[in-house]
Amino acid sequence: MVAPQPHLRPASRQHATRYETRILLLALGVGAVPIAVLAAVLWQLDAPPALATTALGVSLLAWLFAAHRLRFEVVYHLQTLANLLEALREGDFSLRGRRARRDDALGEVVLEVNALAQTLREQRLEAREASALLQKVVVELEIAVLAFDREGSLKLANPYGARLLASSPEALVGKRAASLGLAELLTGPTASIVQRTFPGGTGRWDVRHATFREAGIEHQLLVISDLSRALREEERKAWQRLIRVIGHELNNSLAPIMSMAATLSTLVARDPLPGDWRQDLGSGLSVVGDRAGALSRFMTAYASLARLPSPNRRAVDLAQLARRVAALETRAAVRTEGPTLRIEADADQIEQALINLVKNAVDASEGQGRVLLRWRATGDGTVVEVIDEGPGIANADNLFVPFFTTKPGGSGIGLVLSRQIVEGHGGTLTLENRGDARGCVARVNLR
């Protein structure tokens, strides 16, 4: 327990004595006693006046010199320390105290001040380097970075932000957010995606704002990033993949149809008709019908993928649903494992997703290996896993490409539809090779 300190009142200006004056008076007071004793001794010994005067004069001079020297030693070193500390306060970390020793009390203080100056110098250098790096990054960012003070006046704008507002950073500084058309972005949600037209561009933008403090004063930071370019690039890639797959499927169906149509045209143009023309015509029409049916199934599958409704969530017994999914598979025995667990989900959609995953697992195992469907609760949701003993994943690049399949008669939408269902529930679907044995794990994380 630290004892409370008495309340100290500063001395008034009228009665305050300077520190160096107090040191001088203290030194004079200490020397006055020996001088008085010397004078008394000379008086008692009845010394000759010349000798007494000389002795007292020398003593007085030595007394005064020692007092002033003591004052100088104390004041000089304190002033040195004051100069060093003043330099630190002013931000000059280059000054150092000299002739300081570790075995000296004053030297210890000077060395510690020197060490403090070196530490502050290194920290300022690191801060300047970090600030220069941050400034360089902000300048090069293809994202608008705008800082406003608490009155809503713009204090900083990077080059991209200035281009977005069709001005220069210097011309923008000091303008109000309202005059720049940004006031509602500062008062809206902290993170949002908006469709908006700025003086320097139109499109979809990711808008984020937050508060920060500078010199104890609250400021606001507004960050605006263009999503249109990234969305257009992703859209272009998606269309390329879709067109490639659709083109492949259409060619697979239209090529034999066109070939068979040409063959049948040649057949019926012959005169007289061959004896087996009816059989050839029926076989050709059967091929055309089969390929037209495959094309129809393909378009139906595409429509089901594109028109997936939003999940209708309700309480679902996951254990009961999983066992029902396992019972639907008749080609192989699907083992289930997991506790009684209820989740909020669209039962029909989750069941369809698990049916697709179990079907793929059985296909991969070729009806020979074991398939395990298990589930468990986690700290932030539920994990459902479908584990097979197939060959595993050789190439994961096309796993979720719509209509891509390596299985005869496959539609190529099972995994895509399953992932779309899971993501519609706010979860994730991943596929990876098993680490403990041969096979693959399809893992569904639901939150």
Question: What does this protein structure show overall?
Answer:
By secondary structure, this protein is an alpha+beta fold. Helices cover 52% and strands 18% of the residues. It contains 11 helices and 12 strands. The chain has helices spanning 19-44, 49-90, 105-140, 159-164, 169-172, 183-187, 228-269, 277-306, 318-328, 347-365, 414-424; strands at residues 144-148, 154-157, 191-198, 201-214, 217-226, 314-317, 334-337, 342-345, 371-378, 381-387, 428-433, 440-446. It has a 5-stranded antiparallel β-sheet. A hairpin with a 5-residue loop joins strand 1 and strand 2. It is elongated and about 170 Å long. It starts with 18 loop residues before the first helix and ends with a strand.
Q: Could you give a quick summary of the protein structure above?
A:
The protein is α+β, with helices and mostly antiparallel strands and 447 residues long. Helix content is 52%, strand content 18%.
The helix content is: 40-55%
Strand portion? 15-25%
Categorize the overall geometry.
Answer: elongated
What's the order of the H and E elements? Answer: HHHEEHHHEEEHHEHEEHEEHEE
- Major sheet description: 5 strands, antiparallel
Intertermini distance: 52 Å
The DSSP helix count reads 11
> Mean pLDDT, rounded to whole units?
79
Quaternary structure of the protein: single chain
The counted number of beta strands is 12
Radius of gyration: 45 Å
Taking pLDDT < 50 over at least 5 consecutive residues as the criterion, the unreliable ranges are: 1-14
Strands in their spatial order, largest beta sheet: 2-1-5-4-3
Quickly give the structural class: alpha+beta
